[in-house]
């Protein structure tokens, strides 16, 4: 799930102080010894370095300036103490001098941060960058990256950075809140697909079946450009990155960038020259140890086994890792890693995935061996996967899920929108100028403001509308509100867009039922048939074929949104920001690995790593029950205190998703129709769970727009956040005198 981290938010479990200051409850009246204070100062220095990307020289300057301030502040304090003691009759120098020296000597900040040039003599434990680094590595949960030499080639030495996954797991599982997620997982006894655990591949994994507590590793692989992709240095500093995350954590937690760990960083050119099998050797060695011996957890006093569950990657990276053909053009006979379909079969409406033979582990092993022996292949498998090695419980046939973001939002959606919009314009329903005017002037609100689509530039030779994944998703959802009224009902090219809208909603849904998966299968077949009938000369792409596998792959991997690369790609942004601040490309992998591990050490040493269940943005207000309507008074009785007043919030963030007043939430499904409520108040119950006081609506589903029209009623209902049909809040738009919402996820409870 994709969350929106809110840096200004604060946990609700705090004591609020005047002027907006908020202090953790546990810190009130707490006495810190010298060691704790030094650790806090070290944390501040580390935060400046890795969070705010303050240069090392600037950190030294800040500490030096603060030492000067502290020095003069101490002199001022000593003078005031001297005057105060004299006022009570103590004027003997033999008594005053020791007190004055004690105050000067026991200035903890100056003692630990001073260097030889400061006012205080001696060099403190944090006085220089070298000493600070020594402190970080010894006193923080720091996992050092290891540099592996690849050899000397093309006139220079080559190396890559690896961060031990076993050591990282030990540090991560030393945090009690993380360990609790592993030891006491949330289990559901229904038949819905909610996570990887509900998928067929997880249930068939021998290791996961044999051990009740078992670590499931989700790996990610991608190449990203560390410099301007249009500049002269492009590709020269391109990075191949492997990240990983614990799939045992709930989706709302593991979507946090803080819990996405860096595993391996290498120059992309080095990966090509030396091969993935060489680069991946230390990772595979440790995963093998994890499979056989496990990782020791001190608090449990035992080892926990685990293995690699799957690898998230775009199609090119997935085929590179899996040993499949890395080309998707018409000259490639077998392009699919899921089945033996040929390129000529993509556009054949008489064939679906049931027409092809699905790849199996035995089939893959035979084809990979034959390809390696013959140094050629016509099966789509060109070599044995570099991931296999000695791993017993992982195989690429069951470990390379599709990427819904690249297949749909950056593949099928922009191509088909370009095709259909151009066709609709050619039929005179609207002009390109009109649709762009609608995009510019439409008042996007709520979460849609962040991903507002760009204007469309469609030329005669254009094959796509461009845009990134979030913008294309927003455009697909909002297009019915922008131009739907200008298109006649039943227009085939418009129906193609509506089919695509429904497919995306189901593909990205965090919870799916068997009926929803069957409905997706029907939609994909109908969409393909209508697309070819409407545009007979349009050649379907390999991503159209991958889409046909989605219903079966959902049954195998669980909701495909959780295996998407979208959230992992957000991790690139943090590393790119470090690169811009460093401006040093001599050994960028080493620089990035060290800085990231310092960042992780800081996070592991601080507060709760998991996202707070509820956070507020300091806008809690108290309201008397008598000032609200009678209908609301009845609903709010259980939320009032002794003075008959209640506390409410104008906005609140839950598991990274922000909820505001006047947003619509899906409350229930009645006879296949989603029922919505408009948020009027946000309150907390006695157990601290967020509740929405909603004005319930009658809903009318528009077949032409595939949106819901809301008609507010007099019914007021209090709905717990955990009881919502879909967690995602929707903005309500006024379109042609109607209040309308466009779903983002399919409502699975049908």
Description:
With 750 residues, the protein is of the alpha+beta class. The chain folds into 5 domains: 31-139; 146-323 and 393-400 and 565-605, no CATH class; 324-384, no CATH class; 404-548, no CATH class; 614-741, Roll (SH3 type barrels), CATH 2.30.30. Helices cover 39% and strands 18% of the residues. It contains 25 helices and 22 strands. The model is unreliable at 1-29 (pLDDT under 50).
Helix content: 25-40%
Tell the overall outline: globular
> Strand tally, please?
22
**Total number of distinct structural domains:** 5
Q: Which strand order do you get reading across the main beta sheet?
A: 4-5-8-7-6-11
Overall pLDDT, averaged?
A: 88
Please indicate the percent range of residues in DSSP E strands (runs of 2 or more).
15-25%
Give me the secondary-structure category.
Answer: alpha+beta
What radius of gyration results from the CA coordinates? 30 Å
The end-to-end span amounts to: 21 Å
| Low-pLDDT ranges | 1-29
**Biggest β-sheet, characterized?**
6 strands, mixed
- Number of helical segments with 4 or more residues: 25
In short:
This protein is of the alpha+beta class. The protein folds into five domains: 31-139; 146-323 and 393-400 and 565-605, no CATH class; 324-384, no CATH class; 404-548, no CATH class; 614-741, Roll (SH3 type barrels), CATH 2.30.30.
Features:
alpha+beta; six-stranded mixed β-sheet; six-stranded antiparallel β-sheet; 25 helices; 22 strands; globular; disordered N terminus
């Amino acid at each position: 799930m994709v969350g929106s981290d809110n840096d200004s938010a604060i946990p609700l479990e705090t004591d609020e102080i005047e002027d907006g200051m908020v202090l953790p409850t546990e810190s009130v009246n707490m006495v810190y010894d010298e060691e704790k204070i030094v650790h806090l100062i070290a944390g501040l220095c580390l935060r400046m370095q890795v969070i705010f990307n303050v240069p090392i020289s600037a950190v030294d300057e800040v500490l030096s300036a603060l030492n000067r301030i502290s020095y003069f502040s101490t002199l001022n304090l000593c003078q005031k103490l001297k005057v105060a003691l004299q006022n009570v009759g103590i004027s003997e120098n033999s008594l005053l001098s020791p007190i004055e020296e004690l105050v000067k000597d026991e200035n903890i900040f100056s003692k630990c941060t001073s260097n030889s040039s400061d006012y205080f003599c001696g060099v403190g434990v944090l006085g220089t960058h070298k000493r600070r680094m020594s402190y970080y590595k010894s006193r923080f949960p720091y996992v050092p990256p290891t540099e592996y030499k690849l050899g000397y080639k093309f006139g220079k030495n080559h190396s890559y950075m690896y961060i031990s996954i076993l050591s990282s797991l030990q540090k991560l599982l030393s945090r009690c809140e993380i360990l609790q997620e592993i030891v006491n997982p949330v289990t559901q006894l229904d038949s819905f697909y909610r996570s990887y655990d509900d998928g067929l591949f997880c249930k068939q994994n021998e290791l996961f079946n044999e051990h009740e507590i078992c670590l499931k590793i989700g790996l990610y692989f991608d190449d990203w450009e560390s410099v301007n992709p249009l500049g002269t240095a492009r590709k020269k500093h391109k990075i191949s990155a492997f990240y990983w995350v614990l799939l045992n954590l709930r989706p709302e937690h593991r979507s946090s960038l803080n819990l996405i760990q860096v595993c391996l960083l290498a120059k992309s050119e080095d990966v090509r020259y030396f091969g993935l099998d060489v680069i991946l050797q230390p990772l595979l060695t440790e995963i093998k140890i994890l499979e056989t011996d496990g990782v020791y957890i001190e608090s449990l006093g035992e080892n926990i086994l685990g293995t690699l569950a799957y690898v998230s990657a775009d199609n090119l990276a997935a085929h590179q890792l899996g040993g499949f053909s890395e080309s998707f053009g018409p000259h490639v006979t077998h392009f699919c890693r899921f089945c033996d379909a040929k390129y000529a079969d993509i556009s054949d409406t008489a064939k679906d995935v049931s027409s092809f033979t699905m790849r199996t582990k035995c089939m893959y092993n035979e084809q990979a061996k034959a390809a390696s022996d013959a140094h050629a292949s016509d099966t789509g498998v060109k070599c044995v996967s570099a991931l296999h090695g000695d791993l017993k419980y992982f195989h690429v046939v069951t470990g390379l899920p599709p990427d819904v973001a690249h297949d749909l939002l950056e593949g099928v959606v922009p191509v088909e929108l370009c095709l259909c919009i151009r066709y609709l314009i050619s039929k005179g329903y609207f002009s390109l100028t009109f649709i762009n005017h609608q995009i510019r002037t439409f008042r996007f609100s709520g979460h849609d403001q962040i991903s507002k689509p760009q204007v469309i530039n469609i030329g005669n030779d254009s094959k796509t509308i461009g845009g990134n994944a979030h913008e294309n998703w927003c455009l697909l959802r909002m297009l019915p509100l922008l131009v739907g009224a200008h298109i006649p009902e039943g227009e085939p090219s418009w129906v193609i867009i509506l089919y695509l809208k429904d497919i995306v909603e189901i593909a990205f849904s965090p919870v799916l039922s068997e009926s929803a998966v069957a409905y997706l299968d029907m939609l994909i077949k109908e969409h393909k048939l209508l697309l070819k009938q409407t545009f007979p000369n349009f050649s379907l792409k390999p991503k159209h074929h991958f889409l046909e596998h989605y219903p079966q792959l959902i049954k195998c991997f669980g909701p495909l949104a959780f295996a998407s690369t979208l959230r992992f790609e957000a991790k690139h942004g943090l590393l790119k920001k470090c690169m811009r601040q460093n401006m040093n490309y001599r050994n960028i992998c080493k620089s990035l690995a060290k800085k990231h591990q310092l960042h992780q050490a800081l996070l592991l040493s601080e507060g709760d790593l998991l996202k707070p269940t509820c956070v507020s943005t300091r806008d809690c207000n108290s309201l008397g029950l008598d000032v609200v309507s009678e209908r609301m008074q009845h609903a709010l009785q259980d939320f009032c205190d002794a003075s008959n007043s209640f506390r409410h919030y104008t906005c609140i963030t839950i598991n990274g998703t922000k909820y505001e007043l006047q947003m619509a939430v899906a409350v229930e499904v009645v006879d296949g129709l989603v029922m919505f409520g408009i948020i009027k108040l946000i309150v907390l119950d006695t157990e601290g769970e967020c509740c929405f006081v909603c004005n319930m609506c009658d809903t009318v589903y528009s077949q032409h727009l595939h949106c819901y029209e809301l008609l507010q009623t007099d019914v007021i209902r209090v709905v717990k956040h955990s009881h919502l049909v879909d967690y995602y809040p929707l903005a309500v738009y006024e379109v042609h005198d109607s209040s309308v919402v466009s779903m983002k996820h399919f409502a699975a409870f049908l």
